[in-house]
Give the backbone structure.
Amino acid sequence: MTNWQYDMNRLADWLQSLPVPTGIIAVTDSRARHLIQACEQNNILVPEQIAIVGIDNEEVVRFLTKIPLSSVEQGCLEMGYQAAKLMHESLLQPELLKKRTSLPRIVVPANKVHERQSSEYVSLNDPFVIQAMHFIKRNACKGIKVEQVLDHIGISRSNLDTRFREERGHSIHHEIHQEKLKYACELLCDINIPIQSVADRSGYPSLQYMYSVFKKDLGYTPKEFRVKESCC
């Protein structure tokens, strides 16, 4: 008889046997969350070494993982409609159902793949840049500065900045800036999140500061961006 820890140990053994980089599509968001937990416990970088995508796009699971989970949104409404249609036809014409040896197979395509950090793989060669990118993605919206990245990696700013420009084409500061801006844009696509909350959760010191960043980088205010985006 197995237990939870035994299963997680087996999962960890399997993950450590995989070549890197590797991408995994889990059967559900819950299983994807288990993969992320096993990676964290065994110092496997997500998505730099293992990229992970779940299925179902469950709202709760998104907030249970430290790394935002990419997920496939299934066509659940269409599935329900097609199932109800078959049931309705069977009730109207039960004699036809009796003559059928099998029900028709109906394939309902997924609605969308919601891309988040767990699958945001970027091909990099420099191990210091890989570590820095992982740290930035997990902490950019906590208000970190370049100094915190340098402390985490343990090399000089000039050294790491040079490596960043060679691998990414820009500075460490710009990488932090872009990560915060990208996350703010994602949050703005949810009209239920107040814009002040978007600024807070994205690590901006004030709403006014976020407005100036958006205007400078995108040419829109956050409110204009929200209205413009079709996802809203």
